[in-house]
Amino acid sequence: MRKIIYWVHTSVDGFVDGPNGEFDWTELGPELADYAHEVHDGVDTFLYGRVVWEMMSGYWPTADKESDHPHDQEFAPIWRETPKIVFSRTLRGPLDWNTTVINSDVAESVAALKSGTGKDLLLNGGSGMAATLADLGLVDEIQVIVHPVILGGGKRLLPIARTALELTGTRTFDNRSVLLSYTLG
């Protein structure tokens, strides 16, 4: 069975974006970029909620033409080619860049994805969608990248009820950020 991996960047104080929705505080050094590519090699579908989809689709389609950052150069083509699923009550498909929209029956749709064939599924950012899937018991692994910044407000990392997690690994990248890997217990 395929796993859903929730991949998320957070501040030390547990926010995935700033008080005004800003996401300009993450820093992808060479080690973290290499790890991100390892993660992407193990998945074949990206999952998004609407808000994160809008952010990603506003940048990644042309990032390799607009940025000289090595990660952007390598990841933009991967992003364009990888199948994407957006969960939204308001968006209607089809969308560009190999994207499907699911408007209802989230639990049934995700359960079908997980029982299908292929590599794992990567849920990027988006604490709301992650909370929905975690509450449904559909998130298998959480990979939290903690960045050395305090935001003082914004959206919480994972707004769900008390849930036991099992630490499965830690790793430091570029002497800046720390990966905390968990399974839901």
Summary of the model, kept short:
The protein is 30% helix and 28% strand. The chain has 185 residues and is α/β, with parallel strands linked by helices.
Global shape? globular
- Compute the number of structural domains: 1
Q: Strand order within the widest sheet?
A: 4-3-2-5-1-6-8-7
Largest sheet: 8 strands, mixed
What's the assembly state of these chains? Answer: single chain
H-E string? EHEHHHEEHEHEEE
Question: Distance between the terminal alpha carbons, to the nearest Å?
Answer: 18 Å
CATH class: Alpha Beta
Corresponding CATH superfamily: Dihydrofolate Reductase, subunit A
Mean pLDDT comes to 93
Radius of gyration: 16 Å
Question: Helical residue percent?
Answer: 25-40%
The total of helices stands at 6
Structural class: alpha/beta
CATH fold call:
Dihydrofolate Reductase, subunit A
Spans of at least 5 consecutive residues with low confidence: none
Number of strands: 8
- Beta percentage is 25-35%
